Amino acid sequence: MEDWYKLDHAGKLFPAVAGRENSSTYRLSMMLTSPVHEEVLQTALDDVISRFPLLNVELRNGLFWKFLREKETRLMVKPENAYPCSPVTLSESNGSLVRVLYHGNKISVEIFHALTDGGGALEFLKTLVFQYLYRIGESVEDRDGLILPPASFARYAEAQDSFKAHYTSTVSEIRTPEALQIPGTRFSPYGHNVIHGMIHASRLNAAAKQHGATLTAYLTALLIMAVHDSTLPLNNENRPIVISMPVNLRKIFPSSSLRNFFAVINIGVRIEAGMTFEQVLEIVQAQMKEKTTKPYLTQAMASSMKYEKNLLSRFTPLKLKDLAIRYGFDHYGEEAKTLTLTNLGRIDIPASMGAHIEAMETTMYPTAKSPMNCAVCSINDQLTITFARNIVENDVIQHFFRQLSGLSGLDVRIISNDWGMGA
Amino acid sequence: MRCESCGVTVDPVHAACPLCRRNLHGKDAASLAGNRWYPAYTVREEERASSLLSNWLAFIVVSVISVSVIINALGNRDVWWSLYLMPCVLYAWLFIRHTLMSRSHLGGKVIVQLLGLSGMLLWINVVADTNYWSTGYVIPFLMMAATFFITLICSTKKMRWREFAGYLLTLILLGFIPLLLYAVGMSHVLWTAVAAALYALLTFGGMCLLADKGFRQDIKRRLHF
What we know:
The complex is a heterodimer. Chain A is 33% helix and 23% strand. Chain A is of the alpha+beta class. By secondary structure, chain B is an all-alpha fold. Among the domains of chain B are: 1-43, no CATH class; 129-225. Chain B has helices spanning 49-74, 82-101, 106-128, 133-156, 160-163, 165-174, 177-183, 190-210, 213-222; strands at 2-3, 8-10. In chain B, a hairpin with a 4-residue loop joins strand 1 and strand 2. The mean pLDDT of chain B is 85. The interface between A and B is large, with 51 and 40 residues.
């Protein structure tokens, strides 16, 4: 019996704005210590996909909203051969919104954002890799309950649209000025260049603590300085540099949903002449503190949901709604930020599993107006900072890693997919 | 391998630093290990033939319309024949671009044809300043014909009901437009408008009765708001 799901609140945005230059598809990968076997990975995927039915779905058009329908076909693993976060097929027939890829020692999942956010995707990847290691004969066990148990899918709790569950009508108008946009030349042929920087996690955390800041605030301030240094001659209007940051709402509102449940906060600094890193860090830290409180996030959630709740917009035909969403996204979402930084945080996995994981990375797709995005995660005390870009110019990334290694005094190991570099 | 310029360690798979593109000393191509993180991409030139044809087509349409308007404006201005030519050219463009060239679903093509043809006829009707023959007779019958066509396709195979459900639903809703046009005074023929609406209602009722349970569930999903 096939099942269907309404798109959650955040999920309604992505199908309307997705395209070649905004794939709305992100990636999470784990690098294992031994080569991946395709057949075993497929078996592991077959084992776990029934636990994540929301991921084996296709997108269908309704009269007023799109919806997700469970697919009758099997989700297959594939060798990686395209650039990271390339667009998924959204067409009605044979469209897959999830890719499970392997290359050498690496297992990757690429997921269309309408299905779930990084939190949900992380649970899927952890469960898949755990099952793969188990299937391959490694002695892995989960004593601390860090992997989702293979019990049946808890539809009510895990497929819940938690935005609706925690909605209150306390709307506030948050007007943000136009942010500085990073200019650049698109890759031809189009694709995403990815650069990973790997660094010792606890030492970097200690470096951030020395400045009295959290790791995310420290990296955000560094990023703002890097954008400022590399775009200095272009920012004549002294527009603010705004880092957009998804916040996992599961940590603030009780939810075990495996679907999207995040809010986006914007951390913006208008840099004046002579401003130091410490001053920028102080502003960032203060804004992050203010914008991650429950009342602020409740209001942010209510503001973004007010259009969905409006009776007129609910009965507007889908095509018209898509046009309106695209306009709003381009003019109020994309123009209000310079780039996105998302931090999945420290990934906790069972110790027996950790011995087989060399590294982990997450890649956030770039878009037309945000041609460079940054994603961070750490596992086994190794932190990976990943920049994905669709433009040739990489001054921001260069400045960022130079400053990071200079300021922290830590060694940063760089690896890239070299897309568009002719290598 | 260390890149002194950037102050970072570069993975040995790279001959040049991914940040500054400087060659890393002492590294020759033969000693490079394969990239453990990423495959070597086979980059294909992007398919441009189809978009080139579309651009040419759009250019021809704009040229024909602008040239005809100028000839008309500079020549005999008693009869504005270019206003009749314009919708025909636009309809021809739609026919080639969407119906012939695109890989859209047949249901989508039928709806676009219906809208395009109705739009063209209504335009000509308005320019000619005659009675609303398009909204009174042609458009209602076009709506019924399109609905009948899709129903016929669905009847040939059981699975097709679900495949065409969204399109059929759209056509049923479009079936009420003639009645709406009559209500706002853009049509003076009531019986055709009522016939189109009745035909849409009967098709919907028939669908619910004759199609399988899966189809009825599909309708429920597609109408959720």
